[in-house]
Known about the structure:
By secondary structure, the protein is mainly alpha-helical.
Amino acid sequence: MKKPSLLFSALIGAVASARSMTPMAALAAARLAGAHTPGKLFLLDRPLLTFGALAMGVGELLGDKMKSAPDRTVFLGLLARVMSAGIAGAALAPPGREPTGASVAIATAVPLAYATLSRRKRAMARIGQTRSGLIEDALIVAAGATIVALATRSLPMEPTAQAQRERIAS
Length: 170
């Protein structure tokens, strides 16, 4: 018997390596669209947390272009990546394999944070902080949205997600 894949967990970990809040923002957007994840994700069952995740994702995209923005490999940057990757990796893991999905995502996010930082620094030297950041943003946001969309595409809508959409709409 073949075990369900943890590929989406690993891929969302790669997204977290470059933008710590994008995995949570992508999951929040999917929740608002009525999708649910294969693994459990209770964190975004409350509208305040859903919209908070979206706001944090946008805030990170804006803050990244500031000259004072810290490297993604500072302690708090890595901690944010570990938390976001873990939550998103668990949510995109097959049912019952959430802890493994979280571990896979974290194990992907942390080392790749160093690799993506190195690549970003080279790009910044060539084209500047803002342009390199905008390009990285476009790639990472597209990747996060695609990964979450693919991971949730064939799943039936969860009743709590439907109820959340109805609460938000009213």
